[in-house]
Design brief:
186 residues, mainly beta, lipopolysaccharide transport protein A fold, seven-stranded antiparallel sheet, 12% helix
């Protein structure tokens, strides 16, 4: 192949490939996708710097870049989730990404890599490199707590009174193999 032919081929690819991609998706910049409760209250607001919505009939997965999700409680933002990009299915209220993610609430800041969000089940799973940083306002009593009706633990006279912050965590056996993240099929 001559140098002239290679240059023409590269120029053709540079101009045609973006046109093919653009023909496949409708690009929306600074998109906002609200989700409301049955009572009409705003529950979730999804922001996208760029949303690539497939033009193909039947395709339901949008590609979102510059993702920000705000979860609302009592008409106030309770949680903010941010990631570089994700695949989002609006009808299923499902998002999936292999990117880093950051979750901020008043009580904590969580970071990690690769996530799945299921809005119908109100579940958010981070699969790798999870780190949780609690704010200074949170304090937890980690002393052992006696079961209801049992004698208080030695050195802890108040341990018989269970409270949400001092209740023992249920005993869960450690898995023998690491969990496998579910596959995402767009």
């Amino acid at each position: 192949m001559s140098k002239r032919t290679r240059i023409a081929t590269v120029l053709l690819l540079i101009t045609v490939v973006p046109l093919l991609i653009a023909a496949e998706y409708q690009m929306v910049k600074n998109a906002r996708i609200p989700e409301y409760s049955e009572e009409g209250d705003l529950e979730t607001m999804i922001y996208a710097e760029v949303a690539k919505i497939p033009k193909k009939r039947g395709a339901k997965t949008a590609l979102i870049e510059g993702l920000k999700i705000e979860l609302y409680e009592n008409n106030e933002v309770s949680t903010t989730i941010q990631a570089k990009s994700c695949n989002y299915e609006r009808e299923k209220r499902f998002a999936r990404s292999q990117e880093n993610v950051s979750i901020q609430t008043k009580e904590m800041h969580i970071t990690g890599r690769e996530f799945a969000y299921d809005g119908n089940r109100e579940r958010f799973v981070i699969f790798h490199d999870v780190k949780v940083k609690l704010t200074k306002s949170n304090t937890f009593d980690l002393r052992p707590v006696a079961a209801p009706g049992a004698a208080p633990a030695p050195g802890n006279p108040s341990s018989s009174a269970l409270s949400p912050l001092s209740a023992p965590a249920p005993s869960v056996p450690a898995p023998s193999t690491p969990p496998v993240p579910p596959r995402f099929v767009p």
